[in-house]
From TrEMBL:
Residues 13-195 form the Ketoreductase domain. This is 3alpha(Or 20beta)-hydroxysteroid dehydrogenase. It comes from Sphingobium xenophagum. GO terms for molecular function: androstan-3-alpha,17-beta-diol dehydrogenase (NAD+) activity. PROSITE patterns: ADH_SHORT. Its EC number is 1.1.1.53. It comes from the Bacteria. Keywords: NAD, Oxidoreductase. Belongs to the short-chain dehydrogenases/reductases (SDR) family. NCBIfam families: PRK07231.1 (NF005559).
Length: 243
């Protein structure tokens, strides 16, 4: 039965969202703000469409020094940190045989080391009073995927780090979960050639790409007290793609 729905609330929670200049990160920042959070969106590049009331900071997630600055300025500005969304990511599609070492290292540096540094710095800031971290992995972390060796394996690492960090941080009241988006309508997917987009769409049981707001709503839920007993979990938001 369809009825009125309610949103998980994030009143006054202070949350950093990486990769917040566009695509999914922008949708996540907007959704968190709508639910009452104080949001700091960060990215290498300027936001496409800045959101009123969301602060923005330039930030390279592969730089430990940048992380120190971002977390310190969130605490200076708002007095504490309650949450982190490790959303920034990078990928180039290539099969194993055409995966050059430099490209593999860059993919791991952004997707794995960037996520590691974010969890490490946020956990240090949240260790006394708890908090929540959501890592945006991908449905390609759920099984082997042809033609995207570096990207897929880096997202397997994000999924694995989520579970290991969740175990180590549980006693500090810090929950760590991952969201695995399926093909979602963002600039990353828009950049695919037309025939490739059509082929991917035809493989989605629900017959359409995800809307970034659907990834954002799941992320907001995992950051909220509605998910207070969920840690080390992964949620597929993929229209049944990898069911
Ligand atoms: N769009 C999809 O279909 C899809 C599916 C599964 C997972 N994902 C994941 O969701 C996340 C968001 O993807 P998107 O589709 O919005 O992609 P996007 O390319 O639009 O956004 C990624 C953002 O990350 C930023 N970024 C890249 N490297 C960075 C760095 N070193 N430091 C800081 N920021 C950096 C980029 O500037 C960009 O704004 C990514 O982690 C991606 O892997 C996307």
């Amino acid at each position: 039965m369809k009825g009125k729905t309610t949103m998980s609330q994030l009143n006054e929670r202070v949350i950093v969202v990486t990769g917040g200049a566009g695509g999914m990160g922008l949708a996540i920042a907007r959704a968190l703000k709508e639910r009452g959070a104080r949001v700091i969106a960060t990215d290498l590049r300027e936001p496409q469409d800045p959101i009123d009331g969301v602060e923005f900071a330039r930030h390279d997630i592969t730089s430990e020094r940048d992380w120190d600055t971002v977390i310190a300025s969130a605490i200076d500005r708002f007095g504490r940190l309650d949450g982190l969304v490790n959303n920034a990511g990078w990928g180039e599609l290539a099969p194993f045989q055409q995966t050059e070492t430099e490209m593999f290292e860059k993919t791991l540096r952004v997707n794995q080391i960037g996520t590691f540094l974010g969890m490490k710095k946020a956990a240090e800031a949240m260790k006394d009073k708890g908090g929540a971290i959501v890592n945006i992995a991908s449905c390609v972390s759920m099984r082997g995927v042809a033609g995207q060796f570096a990207y897929s394996t880096s997202k397997w690492a994000v999924r694995g780090m989520t579970k290991c960090a969740a175990l180590d941080l549980a006693a500090h009241g810090i929950r760590v979960n991952s969201v695995n988006p399926g093909p979602t309508d963002t600039p990353m997917i828009a950049a695919f050639p037309g025939e490739m987009r059509a082929a991917v769409q035809s493989m989605i049981p629900m017959g359409r790409f995800g809307d970034p707001r659907e990834i954002a709503a799941t992320t907001a839920f995992l950051l909220s007290d509605d998910a207070s007993y969920i840690t080390g979990a992964e949620v597929e938001v993929d229209g049944g793609f990898f069911a």
